[in-house]
Each structure stands twice: as C-alpha cells, then as structure tokens.
Amino acid sequence: WLLSALLLNVLLGLLLYHPAPINHWLHTDLQKRLKGWDALGNQYLAIQRRYPNALLLSDDRAPLSMLAYYAHPAGMRGVSWNPRHVVRHHYDLVTTLNDKKGADFLLVTEDKLSPKLTRYFDNVQRVGSLRKIITPNYGMNFDVYLLSNFKGLKQWSIGNAGKTGSAVYINDTRVCGCGWTLLLLPPWRFGVRIGI
Predict the structure, then answer these.
(1) Mind giving me the DSSP string for 121-141?
(2) If you count Cβ atoms within 10 Å of the first and of the last residue's Cβ in the chain, which end, N or C, has fewer?
(3) Of 184, 182, 154, nearest to 168 (Cα)?
C-alpha cells in the first residue's frame, strides 16, 4: 500500500503542476485566470505614460494586485475604490482615499461605470482598454478611465458629537436623530463610521 500511495502522490503532483492532460480532457485551461497579466501590464503602462501623475485605482483586488506586479505603476501606488469603507480584500485594509484629495486616478474596471462616480471627480473620461484573449471562450476585458481631481469622500459618523441625544452626522452636519436605531445594525454594512 505504501508503493501505491507514493505512486498516486507522484501522479497527482504531476497532474497538478503540469495540467496539460487535464486541460486536454476537459477542453479548458485550469490556469487561464493566471495567464495574460503580463500583456495587460504592458498595455496599462502605455496608458500610464500618458498620465504619469495618475494613480492606479480599481474596485477589484485582481487588477490591483496583478498590475502592481506586472506593470509596476508609478511607485506601485495602487488604491482600492471603496467609498463605503467596506472591507472586501487586502487593498481595502492597506489603502485609503482619505489623503488623496485633488489626485488624478486611472480606474481599471470590468464593470460598467457608475454615474455616481462623477460626483467624486471633476472629470471622468475613458482613455483606453486592456484586452487579452486567453482561450477561445475566455478573455480579460478592462476599461480604463481617467478620473481627474478627486473631491474627497463624505465622512459619516454616528454619535452625540458633544450634543445631547444621539444622531447621525455627515461632514459634522446633523442629518438624523435616529442614532440608537442605527447602532443596532452592523455599521460595516452601510460604510458608517461610529464616533460617540
């Protein structure tokens, strides 16, 4: 049984590290999500050269991590677009938009651009795309937008802020006297910062 276990281990190891036979049998590429990022990194660098002061911005972890590795954007300064302050991945924890007021960004996204994005920037314009076909039925498609002059994010807080009673404040303006009701709800669901 020891010899059969050893042979099974070697066989599975070879198939996992060299999945060509599995890809052939399944008519797919198990490593397709890992391929093509070097080409996308070169495409991104060509766009970044036109806007050298713009920071890499994305609403998804994959473009941030892969472009930081393959493109090495301006000082590797990638930022996660996270206006609701909801932690979804590593870049939500280690990057912030709070100190980026007035900055320009190159937004890399697979999703349709939200019209709400224009309220955070003076100008939003599509400046290019990143495209790579990996297999006949799989490819990566990202649009790149130049977002000019970041206006900053609204600051939310719940608490009394030195006043009697509890309330919700946006930019130090009282908008609701229902703070205790909101305190019963998890604040990370709404991007609310609690300050009592």
Answers:
(1) EEEEEEEEEEEEEEETTEEEE
(2) N
(3) 182
